[in-house]
Amino acid sequence: MAAHTILYSTTSQSLLHPLRSNPNHPPRFSSFPRQSLTISSSARKRLTVVAAAKNAVAVLKGTSNVEGVVTLTQEDDGPTTVKVCITGLSPGPHGFHLHEFGDTTNGCISTGAHFNPNKLTHGAPEAEIRHAGDLGNIVANAEGVAEATIVDKQVFLFLIVCVCTQVIPLSGPNSVVGRAFVVHELEDDLGLGGHELSLTTGNAGGRLACGSYLTWTVFRQSRPTPVGC
């Protein structure tokens, strides 16, 4: 965890009410005399700046016998490692994406389109132009089990809290919070197939199974594991 000390100003009227300041000379946080405020142990439980490794797990379920588990790990501000194990698939490659909504109330169709905060076209995970949720393909073996490890710089786990002039962003723009992983029926053509859907979905076909994150705290119990993984 990061240090539990917050800097605050002894001349705090403008800091607490930035809109009341002179608009031609907005206050700068560094211009105030600063004192150190140490938060008690009880307060630390309520206000914590997170700056350490994070883990998350999503359980994928579908209308057929396709199921799986996705485990995510991020160290500090580095890339996220996505470990996938899905069973019940037909042998061969299957598109695997992060979709924009974590809503599965109407099945996988409720998860919306690929997560695409930058409004780009679909592409391969290593492509410069791609959706943030484009994670390529996973390949199922003859038993229908697909296992993969994906390291991606556009998918983030961190919950970052900034305590300053009334600005409290709860997560980065590409966070997995509120989103869902989806495994598809067909191979993702990575935007190169020339099909009318290539630049939107990779022409990866129907949605076989999906799941949103369950928790992103450090695991204290064994993660759920489908048979075969």
From TrEMBL:
Keywords: Antioxidant, Copper, Disulfide bond, Metal-binding, Oxidoreductase, Zinc. The keyword Chloroplast does not apply. Its cofactor is Cu cation; Zn(2+). Residues 66-211 form the Superoxide dismutase copper/zinc binding domain. Pfam families: Sod_Cu (PF00080). GO terms for molecular function: copper ion binding; superoxide dismutase activity. SUPFAM superfamilies: Cu,Zn superoxide dismutase-like. GO terms for cellular component: chloroplast. Gene3D superfamilies: Superoxide dismutase, copper/zinc binding domain. Its EC number is 1.15.1.1. It catalyses: 2 superoxide + 2 H(+) = H2O2 + O2. Homotetramer. Belongs to the Cu-Zn superoxide dismutase family. Destroys radicals which are normally produced within the cells and which are toxic to biological systems. PANTHER family: SUPEROXIDE DISMUTASE CU-ZN -RELATED. This is Superoxide dismutase [Cu-Zn], chloroplastic. It comes from Actinidia rufa.
